[in-house]
Amino acid sequence: AVVLDVVDCSNQMAQGKGKTGEFVMQCFEPWMVWLDPQKKLIDAVNSDRGSNMKLGVSLLKVKFPRAVHLPGGKHLLANFFLEIRKIPEVHCIYVVPPFLYNYFSSGTRQRTCAKFREESKAFNGGVYLGFLQSIEVRFASNEKAVLRTLRLRKPLMAAIRSAALVDQVPQKLVGVLEHP
Questions:
Q1: DSSP H helices in 124-152
Q2: Which of 12, 36, 61, 131 could lock 101 by a disulfide, CB 3.0 to 4.6 Å apart?
Q3: DSSP letter assigned to residue 137
Q4: CA dihedral (144, 149, 155, 159) positive or negative
Q5: What pLDDT, on a 0 to 100 scale, did the predictor assign at position 119?
């Protein structure tokens, strides 16, 4: 499963039109055509159980007859990842991102947040990229937080090793980050 686009529905809603099945189909169809112009690869479309989503997928099935609708499939994936996280060796991976978010991105520790922000910009072409706050009710937010943590390892290590933070970061944390 992959997120290919996030659609801003503001204009649609401002015009008093709502997110109809036709609108949903117009959002999905360009991606499906781009990914599968021969209509031989896409065999499932995942969405929530909303009536507009069901209608949108039904309209897509006219053009992509192999596609079946998997309503609520994201809940199956969420439960799968929840079970995986119970494995002790995997669970330890999920413990680190919330701590790093609180320590370096939430703003509660001004010095560590400011130094990390500076290093993040230096490593990301002038754009700040911070740690993600994982929230249990948001689909895959824990997995996204882990992936973001991996991406931010270099700016994090640069911030931790800087003279400005040498006394600010607990040595146990430094040890975990230097030897994952």
A1: 141-151
A2: 131
A3: T
A4: positive
A5: 93
26 three-state secondary structure: helix
Return the structure tokens found at 57: 């997928």
Nearest 5°: CA angle at 137, between 12 and 96? 120
This model's pTM is above 0.85: no
Q: Is the pLDDT of residue 90 over 90?
A: no
From CA 101, how far away is CA 131, in angstroms rounded?
A: 5
- Angle, CA of 10, 14 and 20, to the nearest 5°: 75
User: Closest Cα to residue 160, out of 152, 169, 171?
Assistant: 169
> DSSP character for 43?
-
Euclidean distance between CA atoms 142 and 122, whole angstroms: 26
Residue whose entry in the numeric block shows the structure tokens 């895959």: 140
Residue 137 has pLDDT above 70, yes or no: no
Under DSSP, the state recorded for 134 is P
Long-range contacts of 87-95 (CB under 8 A, 24+ apart): 93/146, 94/134, 94/142, 94/145, 94/146
Q: Which single residue is written with the structure tokens 């031989």? A: 40
Between 153-161 and 141-151, two packed helices, what is the crossing angle to 10 degrees?
Answer: 60
Which has the closest alpha carbon to 165: 110, 90, 124? Answer: 110
CA count, 13 A, side-chain hemisphere, 30:
7
The mean per-residue pLDDT over the stretch 92-115 comes to 86
